[in-house]
Amino acid sequence: AISAFFSTSSSQSAIKNVMVIGSGLMGAGIAQVAAATNHQVTMVDQTNAILTKSMRSIEKSLDRVAKKKFKDDTEGGNKFVADTLARITITTEPNTAIADTDLLIEAIVENMRTKHKLFTDLDNAAPSHTIFASNTSSLPIREIASVTKRKDKFGGLHFFNPVPMMKLVEVVRTPETTDDTFDALFQFSKELGKVPVSCKDTPGFVVNRLLVPYIMEAVRMLERGDASARDIDTAMKLGAGYPMGPIELADYVGLDTTKFIIDGWHEKYPDVPLFEPSEILNDLVARNKLGRKTGEGFYKYD
Ligand code: NAI
Q1: Is the CB of residue 92 below 6 angstroms from any atom belonging to ligand 1?
Q2: For 197, which DSSP code?
Q3: Residue 135 Cβ < 6 Å to ligand 1
Q4: pLDDT tier for residue 13 given thresholds of 50, 70 and 90
Q5: Nearest to residue 130, comparing CAs of 101, 156, 108?
Q6: Preceding amide of 277 cis, omega within 30
Q7: How much is the mean pLDDT over the chain?
Q8: Positive/negative CA dihedral, 211, 216, 221, 227
């Protein structure tokens, strides 16, 4: 597995130069993994200050990876970190840098209008062969692609947080995505050392479509007073073998994120009972109790 992860020779795909737009939690992780697997990466964000901060977090993460993978070989580890960092270029001007890009991965804010603006500009600036992909969690890929003239070269690449650790990539195809585009995205995911699964452009793809309603059912159970948060979590950990219970998981994901996803689906599919909003969840979010990141959600953290 280690040799597949680091080898230079296994790279058979057409994708060499990758542009990652948005260098936040997800974008920085994607840029790191792409560079670590010998792709040339251009990382884009709104300001150089943000980009510098993202580079530092990538360096820290690479140090951790190197310690694990290279153990006592300090020199090898240092070389891996330096070589990987050297493959990442940063810029705030995607429209000029896109000229050499084989694959563009968008990981900016989850807002359709902002994504449309970005893709309209890039579609005009990019060479015709460039494949576009979005890492969106909750917006339809087809709707994001609708503003471009390359709907055949557009798909979803949905990574999981933290990107360097999580093995899965959901490769999403719309009715317009061609086999060539899909194959290139699938192959690229493998090159990153990930395990890709194929999914249609449906709400939540596979993981979130199952996970979010499950979390919401647990919250509704709590709301009805059927069981306590602790007992629900203990039950699912010890009875279903899950590493985390659903209430803990909601706090981990962030209650604002959970609410954002369920509200979006509820608006689109008002008749699906699994997508009903929850009063407790809405109340916690209104009081800025967003889970782990704010120190309190369903549970308190110190
Ligand atoms: P984040 O807030 O950590 O990062 C977003 C970055 O995009 C920020 O650095 C921001 O400055 C930058 N940005 C915003 N507008 C931009 C623009 N027009 N041009 C260039 N850069 C811009 O967000 P995060 O969590 O990384 O999410 C990004 C995307 O990934 C969203 O679409 C989200 O749905 C998706 N996603 C998030 C996951 C998560 O666990 N947080 C998991 C899988 C997907």
Answers
A1: no
A2: E
A3: yes
A4: low
A5: 101
A6: no
A7: 95
A8: positive
Widest pairwise Cα distance in the chain: 59
Contact 181, 152 (CB under 8 A): yes
3-class DSSP assignment, residue 18: strand
Distance CA 291, CA 54 (A): 24
Closest CA to 79 of 100, 89, 98, 65: 65
Spatial strand order in the sheet of 154-158: 88-91, 40-44, 17-21, 103-106, 131-134, 154-158, 168-173, 195-200
Nearest CA to ligand 1 atom 42: 160
Catalytic residues: 137, 158, 170, 208
What ipTM goes with this model?
Answer: 0.99
Does the pLDDT of residue 3 top 90, yes or no? no
The structure tokens 């000029």 sit at 96
Ligand 1: which of 21, 23, 26 to mutate, judged by most atoms within 8 Å of the beta carbon?
26
In eight-state DSSP terms, residue 219 is H
CA 241 to centroid of ligand 1, rounded, Å: 31
- Please give the distance, rounded to the nearest whole angstrom, from the Cα atom of residue 135 to the centre of ligand 1: 9
Per-residue pLDDT tens digits for 224-278: 999 999 999 999 999 999 999 999 999 999 999 999 999 999 999 999 999 999 9
Backbone dihedral angles phi then psi of residue 41, each to the nearest 5 degrees: -120, 130
Q: How far is residue 26 CA from its own chain's centroid?
A: 5
CA 3 to CA 152: how far, in whole Å? 34
pTM, two decimal places = 0.92
Cα(28)–Cα(21) distance, integer angstroms: 9
